[in-house]
Amino acid sequence: MKAMIGILGGMGPLATVDFLRKLVERTPASRDQEHVPLIVYSVPQIPDRTAGILGAGESPLAAMRAGMQMLERAGAKAIAIPCNTAHYWYEDLARACSVPLLHIADSACAALGEGIVNVGLLGTAGTLAAGFYQQRLAARGYQCLINRQDEIDTWVMPGIGLVKAGDVRGGGALLQQALAALFDSGAQRVILACTETPIGLECIAAPQLPRCVDATIALADACIQWSTLNGQGGAPTATA
């Protein structure tokens, strides 16, 4: 059996399901047994990440550590977190983790491709304040563009909130305005750096999507690559 990957999810629950769907769809498998074995910890009661970064709420670090340790005890040999903002605590989590911890921003930046200079970043106020995307983009020679504060307050955070509340189409309509503003400001590509953003934008078939890097997909691809490199033999030939 291949080595299992643990998914530290629930941040939010719909984003976790979207990540799992994309991971399954992108896995080059012709039968059940060729898919990536997963252990999923989806606990929406983990404290809000943006509030924790901005000093407006409880830190989620202890709750994330508890989930990560449960995944390790269950047999996970690597862990992925389908929440961009949670990666503010990546170093603390990695120190407490005895298995590889995949980084969503590293995966997304690696997916940008060549010939790009100006990269837009569509993410939560917490992710933007944390700066880990900006640091990684600068280290790779990219110029990073973000929405104005009024756009974040009017479109980005309310749009993400609507997706979390189940109004996916309404959230997508707001997020599309924020996305268009980034392209209007000179972005050549935009990283969808919140796992709710592609859900809303896909729901309304936003025309800018082909010019975006979906961090959810990038992390799914990183999981597939890790699983391929860490296979431990095949499964039985039965397909059901």
Q: Can you offer a commentary on this structure?
A:
This protein has a four-stranded parallel beta sheet with strand order 5-4-6-7, with helices on both faces. Strands 2-1-3 form a three-stranded parallel beta sheet, with helices on both faces. The protein has helices at residues 13-26, 49-53, 61-73, 90-95, 104-110, 125-130, 132-139, 149-165, 168-184, 197-203, 215-229, and strands at residues 5-9, 38-42, 78-80, 118-122, 143-146, 189-192, 212-214. It is globular and about 50 Å long. Residues 233-240 have low confidence and may be disordered. By secondary structure, it is an alpha/beta fold.
Structure summary, number of beta strands: 7
- The total count of helices amounts to 11
Using only C-alpha atoms, the radius of gyration works out to 18 Å
Q: Could you report the average pLDDT, rounded to the nearest whole number?
A: 95
Largest sheet report:
4 strands, parallel
The string of secondary-structure elements, in order, is EHEHHEHHEHHEHHEHEH
Biggest sheet: strands side by side, in what order? 5-4-6-7
Q: What fraction of the residues are assigned to beta strands by DSSP?
A: 5-15%
What is the overall shape?
A: globular
Oligomer: single chain
Structure classification: alpha/beta
The helicity comes to 40-55%
Taking the alpha carbons of the first and last residues, their distance comes to 16 Å
